[in-house]
């Protein structure tokens, strides 16, 4: 009769072999259904779910069409479906926090949640993504809403941001289910609207009560694990001048002479260069390749070629780190830092000190971070390595919807196919091989995190 130690060892070997066999079956299903996976992504691209914020004129959004298509797909796989339209008034308690915009209309723009294994007691997983895209714009060499494949790359609006990730996460769930396995823990597939215009869909999804023990947000990461994203502030600085004939001698400004708003704006810009040197040394993160900076995006000034500019506008983009969030988990601390800096700059100039520039805040897109040592992050790294990828960890310099899941205690990573630098570009594309790899990584993570019931495919 074998000893207790021998029996335990023997049982462990059997369990390991069973798990390896389960994974092998799922990976074989993915390999044998690659064409179906890619065709599914093409179907998503062919529904132009452009966020209406980008419409030149008001018109119906196709977001509902896409959500209904996904609902049919997920229901056919056995999910419990809930689809609802966010209501801005119900989100008023979040005023001042990320994603809240009073009065925004979501008629015909629903969120979708599909739950597999509702009520199961094991560890749960949320697979999360947005289905809205920016408008296609011009200068495409292919149809932006066709999903044409050229040299192993699928072209189309949303292939990167982020229908490639949405398709991959759904097909990962299908791979496990079609392989005949039942999970110990539930999987929730959440697809939301409005990320491209501020993230109110994600806020509403969390407000609606959906929670999980972990989350993969399938934004494009070029198949790296991204456990943080930066916050983004957009602001507009209004610089006052005093117009006057540009070709004539001018008196001192104290005596009514002209003041060139462009020259004063240039003075402010020079000081921002100094600030950026300080930020380059202090606002860094080990998983971000570049520091936070204040980037000037637009300059608007002047009325006539014969007059000094009466006013100038400086539109900027400033990034901030999760460690800099304020009590409402957004960028209030950095807003104050920039407002104080601008005041100090203005006080060093006689004209500006009496005609103080003001910042109009346009956007505050939140950020978040999950500790890389968290077991879920490490599970994802091992899943990626298991399919032959490096398993690299790298932060995202841009905003994603990960803020609200993290805010309510859900450890979250960003992971998906596609190069994020190609998001919103003409001829946006994703390598189809990356889509397949993303399906495999998420299927492996589902198996390892939620776990499979013994004998569930027998």
TrEMBL record:
It comes from the Bacteria. GO terms for molecular function: hydrolase activity. InterPro entries: ArgE/DapE, ArgE/DapE_CS, Peptidase_M20, Peptidase_M20_dimer, Peptidase_M20A. Keywords: Cobalt, Hydrolase, Zinc. PROSITE patterns: ARGE_DAPE_CPG2_1. Residues 230-330 form the Peptidase M20 dimerisation domain. It holds the Pfam family M20_dimer. NCBIfam families: DapE-ArgE. This is Probable succinyl-diaminopimelate desuccinylase. It comes from Paenibacillus konkukensis.
């Amino acid at each position: 009769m074998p000893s207790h130690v021998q029996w335990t060892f023997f049982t462990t070997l059997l369990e390991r072999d069973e798990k390896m066999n389960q994974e092998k079956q799922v990976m074989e299903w993915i390999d044998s259904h690659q064409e179906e996976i890619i065709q599914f992504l093409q179907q998503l691209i062919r529904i132009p779910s452009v966020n209406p914020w980008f419409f030149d004129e008001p018109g119906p959004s196709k977001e509902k069409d896409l959500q209904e298509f996904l609902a049919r797909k997920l229901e056919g796989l056995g999910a419990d479906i809930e689809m609802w339209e966010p209501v801005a008034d119900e989100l008023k308690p979040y005023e001042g926090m990320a994603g809240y915009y009073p009065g925004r209309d979501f008629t015909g723009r629903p969120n979708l949640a599909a739950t597999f294994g509702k009520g199961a007691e094991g560890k749960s997983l949320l697979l999360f993504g947005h289905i809205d895209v920016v408008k296609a714009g011009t200068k495409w060499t292919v149809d932006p809403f066709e999903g044409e494949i050229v040299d192993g790359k699928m072209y189309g609006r949303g292939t990167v941001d982020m229908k490639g990730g949405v398709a991959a996460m759904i097909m990962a769930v299908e791979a496990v289910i079609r392989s005949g396995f039942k999970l110990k823990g539930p999987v929730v597939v959440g697809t939301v609207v409005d990320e491209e215009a501020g993230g109110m869909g994600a806020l509403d999804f969390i407000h609606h009560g959906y929670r999980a023990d972990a989350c993969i947000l399938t934004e494009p990461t070029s198949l790296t694990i991204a456990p943080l994203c930066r916050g983004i502030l957009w602001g507009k600085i209004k610089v006052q001048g005093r117009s006057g004939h540009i070709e004539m001698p001018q008196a001192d400004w104290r005596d009514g002479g002209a003041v060139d708003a462009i020259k004063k704006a240039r003075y402010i810009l020079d000081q921002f260069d100094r600030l950026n040197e300080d930020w380059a040394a202090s606002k860094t993160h080990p998983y971000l390749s570049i520091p936070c900076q204040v980037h000037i995006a637009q300059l608007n000034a002047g009325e006539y070629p014969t007059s000094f500019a009466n006013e100038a506008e400086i539109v900027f983009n400033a990034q901030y780190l999760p460690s800099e969030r304020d009590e409402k988990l957004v960028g209030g601390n950095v807003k104050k830092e920039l407002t104080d800096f601008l005041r100090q700059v203005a006080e060093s100039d006689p004209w500006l000190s009496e005609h103080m520039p003001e910042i109009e805040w346009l956007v505050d897109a939140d950020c978040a971070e999950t500790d890389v040592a968290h077991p879920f992050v490490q599970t994802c790294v091992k899943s990626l390595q298991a399919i032959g990828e490096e398993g690299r960890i790298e932060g995202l310099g841009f905003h994603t919807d990960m803020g609200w899941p993290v805010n309510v205690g859900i450890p979250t990573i960003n992971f998906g196919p596609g190069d994020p630098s190609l998001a919103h570009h003409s001829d946006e594309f994703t390598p189809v091989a990356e889509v397949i790899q993303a399906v495999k990584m998420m299927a492996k993570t589902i198996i390892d995190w939620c776990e499979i019931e013994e004998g569930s495919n027998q």
